[in-house]
Write a sequence for this structure.
């Protein structure tokens, strides 16, 4: 309760939440406001913004409604960003917990695998994965998760190493709890807060990676994406720069919103922990 | 026949390239329904012995026979099943529970793990356990961090007796409690011992408390047994250097109204 | 004996989950110069709050009422009035048993007192805000006023590992205190640190100067913490459960050390403890606390031998000494 109040007293957190709320509103209302295929032709090609109020942000090279594309693109960005981050956090937390709790050989093996993933640049890994398996929304999510799970895994392992020595873990062993139950019921939930603090960074990175993949033509071809829109506008950058600028601004605002809200949450919980 | 026999227990740690024996050739036996105190200064290895007996850590040498079986030979499911008979109460009852737990969950775990009561019957069992340790059944719904230190230690005892153990290791279990609460907890432990014939391995640095509730004592110093015997006899007239130092260091109330006849121990 | 500090109507409330919790309720006490005074109480009795309030270490957000008058003979400001509160106490400077006011009445009195402060300069703020600022200002006054922690007051905490900097050598930590408060040069400060380590009987003070806290045992760390606490020659030494984390033997050594240092330097000692037997061995006077109120105050012999209050008697009875009657019914206890 007081945590929420403190959160809402942090201006940057409020700004972040407002941006994210607007983004979610865009994503959710996309098919209500712009029913049908956003990739269908809606008017003359390359109509500049603010000329025709039925097409407020103008049209692209093929005469598609830029505003409709922007709304539908918000869906892809959010869906990919959240799904990839959730997958990365889940995989990272589980692997980190197992490595930290089991120790010994299991720890060695899991951490060397983590090292292997971490030494390959994340974006290259995602790029290679999508080019091999073929672009689709699910594959993009997996590709991004594959390149970002190592951070959460390391943080979770470090936290588990300290929690493992606490009395309540010894207590769980004394009552005869199974080691896996101890790891996932007693240890993991208490190791999560610092792992979740990484989520804003990971969501933002995932949204950017998705945009970059789409920009390179490796996004899901059946969906509108902001990265794809920027790439689309590149060929007419001199005559119609707005085609790249509009989705670019949307992308910047989204990443900013995620960061600010995430920072706000981390700060609020840190203050709360400091006081208690 | 003894309930638990520890023979020649040894545990070594390497620190800075040197090997230090935290527990060095320690042997003792606990009879059913008996309280054996393990006392000594900090660093004497008493907590390490507790953790060895519970198999929270593995010894480098020696053996433990518990209820007639080689306790060190047990593993996996067999060990987890046998753990029901050998329980523990920690010093800091706040650290001994998952910070997110409620009282009900803490008591539900042992009942569920050892199949002591079916799911539908467990709330009633939890209420019984709470009442047995002198707490209201309604406390079950509270979070562990919401209740007082004394209540938490009672919950810890309820958890320990949930599986009907024959031995409970009490690791400084009353040291962190307020004096007024400490007396009540000691009385509760004695009641349970009389009623259920539970044996205690009572680890403490407080010789006053040890003398009040233990039958026998093992005094440890630097990982070795310095002295052992009847608790009252050893504390009233210690022979080892560490025993003498511990007795001399114990704070005492020189109450004039109590000085009649009780000053003999002080002179030694 | 002259008075070192006069505490009048000291009330401290914390905000916890939106509720005001009174940790100390209208407490008055004179601390005599050079005495050894023990504050005894169980958890939640307010004894640590009192120690922190005297040292000016209360956390932000604690609301303080009443005042502490200091009479420091050697200090530059002989008498520093530490509170901005108007004098509303009828029993100022007296050793009075705690008043029977309820916490609610106390809270209201605190509010009134705060509200009468000259805070009209903060025009345009909401009343709630104004009140908050007043509280902060009050805290600042307590912190800025003499006596200065470290120089006039030495404070020993329960956990020596938490009060020592883990990445700074022992010598530097002590030298820093004397440099700050006595204006010594580094070489003078290190020489002084060495004598201090000798005074607290740390084995091999020369090499200890260059050791880090983790290389010492718990008892040795507490000796270092004591050396740092007395480095600047404080008038008042506050030991807040300073021996509770140590085992019996080390505890007895630390108590003997504190007794010797206090006698040698003519310091006043405030010994905060939950252990009435330990306090009785060290203190000349004992104050018994419960629920933020003073239950009984008297000479150690009187408190131990003829306690006036039932609670004090209960505390004494709860002590399990080496001469206590065993709880164990030996005939029925063993199987």
């Amino acid at each position: 309760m007081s945590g929420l109040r403190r959160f809402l007293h942090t201006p940057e957190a409020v700004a972040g939440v407002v941006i994210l709320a607007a983004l979610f509103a865009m994503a959710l209302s996309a098919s209500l406001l712009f029913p049908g295929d956003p990739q269908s032709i809606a008017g003359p090609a390359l109509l500049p913004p603010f000329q025709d109020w039925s097409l407020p942000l103008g049209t692209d090279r093929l005469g598609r409604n830029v505003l409709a594309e922007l709304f539908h693109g918000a869906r892809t960005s959010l869906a990919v960003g959240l799904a990839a981050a959730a997958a990365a956090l889940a995989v990272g937390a589980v692997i980190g917990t197992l490595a930290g709790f089991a120790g010994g050989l299991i720890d060695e093996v899991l951490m060397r695998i983590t090292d292997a993933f971490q030494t390959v640049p994340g974006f290259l890994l995602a790029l290679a994965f999508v080019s091999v398996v073929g672009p689709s929304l699910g594959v993009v999510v997996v590709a991004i998760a594959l390149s970002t799970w190592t951070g959460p895994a390391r943080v979770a392992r470090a936290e588990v190493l300290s929690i493992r020595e606490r009395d309540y873990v010894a207590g769980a062993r004394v009552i005869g709890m199974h080691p896996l139950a101890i790891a996932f019921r007693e240890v993991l939930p208490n190791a999560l807060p610092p792992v979740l603090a990484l989520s804003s960074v990971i969501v933002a990175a995932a949204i950017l990676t998705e945009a970059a993949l789409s920009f390179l033509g490796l996004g899901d071809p059946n969906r509108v994406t902001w990265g794809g829109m920027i790439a689309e506008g590149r060929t007419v950058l001199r005559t119609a720069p707005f085609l790249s600028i509009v989705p670019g601004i949307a992308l910047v605002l989204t990443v900013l919103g995620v960061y600010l809200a995430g920072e706000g949450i981390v700060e609020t919980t840190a203050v709360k922990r400091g006081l208690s | 026949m003894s309930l638990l026999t520890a023979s020649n227990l040894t545990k070594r740690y390497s620190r800075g390239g040197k090997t230090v024996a935290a527990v060095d050739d320690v042997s003792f036996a606990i009879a059913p329904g008996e309280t054996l105190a393990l006392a000594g200064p900090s660093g004497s290895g008493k907590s390490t012995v507790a953790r060895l007996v519970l198999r929270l850590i593995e010894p480098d040498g020696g053996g433990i026979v518990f209820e007639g079986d080689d306790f060190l030979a047990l593993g996996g499911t067999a060990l987890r099943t046998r753990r029901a008979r050998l329980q523990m109460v920690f010093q800091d009852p706040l650290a001994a529970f998952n910070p997110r737990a409620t009282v009900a969950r803490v008591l539900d775990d042992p009942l569920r793990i050892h199949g002591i009561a079916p799911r539908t019957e467990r709330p009633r069992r939890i209420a019984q356990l709470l009442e047995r340790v002198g707490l209201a059944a309604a406390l079950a719904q509270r979070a562990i961090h919401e209740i007082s230190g004394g209540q938490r230690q009672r919950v810890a005892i309820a958890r320990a007796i949930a599986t009907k153990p024959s031995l409970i290791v009490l690791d400084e279990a009353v040291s962190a409690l307020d004096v007024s609460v400490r007396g009540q907890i000691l009385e509760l432990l004695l009641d349970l011992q009389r009623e259920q014939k539970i044996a205690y391995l009572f680890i403490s640095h407080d010789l006053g408390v040890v003398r009040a509730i233990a039958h026998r004592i093992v005094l440890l110093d630097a990982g070795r047994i310095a002295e052992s015997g009847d608790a009252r006899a050893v504390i009233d007239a210690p022979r080892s250097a560490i025993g003498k130092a511990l007795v001399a260091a114990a704070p005492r109330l020189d109450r004039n109204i109590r000085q009649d006849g009780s000053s003999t121990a002080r002179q030694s | 004996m002259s008075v070192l500090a006069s505490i009048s109507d000291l009330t401290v409330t914390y905000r916890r989950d939106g509720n005001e919790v009174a940790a100390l309720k209208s407490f008055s006490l004179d601390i005599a110069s050079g005495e050894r005074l023990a504050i005894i109480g169980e958890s939640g009795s307010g004894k640590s709050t009192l120690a922190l309030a005297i040292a000016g270490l209360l956390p932000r957000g604690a609301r303080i009422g009443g005042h502490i008058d200091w009479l420091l003979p050697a200090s530059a400001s002989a008498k520093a009035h530490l509170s901005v509160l108007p004098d509303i106490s009828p029993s100022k400077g007296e050793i009075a048993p705690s008043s029977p006011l309820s916490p609610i009445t106390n809270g209201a009195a605190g509010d009134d007192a705060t509200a009468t402060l000259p805070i009209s300069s903060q025009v345009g703020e909401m009343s709630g805000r104004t009140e908050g600022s007043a509280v902060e200002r009050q805290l600042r006054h307590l912190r800025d006023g003499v006596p200065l922690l470290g120089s006039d007051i030495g404070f020993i905490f329960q956990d020596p590992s938490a009060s020592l900097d883990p990445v700074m050598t022992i010598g530097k930590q002590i030298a820093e205190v004397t440099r700050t408060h006595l204006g010594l040069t580094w070489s003078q400060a290190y020489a002084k640190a060495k004598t201090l380590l000798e005074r607290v009987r740390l084995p091999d003070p020369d090499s200890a100067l260059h050791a880090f806290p983790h290389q010492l045992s718990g008892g040795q760390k507490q000796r270092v913490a004591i050396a740092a606490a007395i480095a600047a020659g404080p008038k008042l030494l506050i030991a807040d459960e300073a021996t509770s984390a140590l085992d019996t033997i080390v505890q007895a050594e630390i108590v003997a050390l504190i007794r010797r240092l206090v006698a040698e330097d003519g310091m006043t000692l405030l010994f905060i403890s939950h252990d009435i037997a330990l306090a009785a061995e060290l203190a000349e006077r004992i104050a018994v606390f419960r629920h933020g109120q003073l239950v009984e105050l008297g000479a150690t012999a009187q408190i131990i031998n003829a306690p006036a209050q039932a609670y004090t008697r209960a505390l004494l009875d709860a002590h399990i000494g080496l001469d206590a009657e065993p709880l164990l019914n030996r005939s029925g206890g063993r199987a």
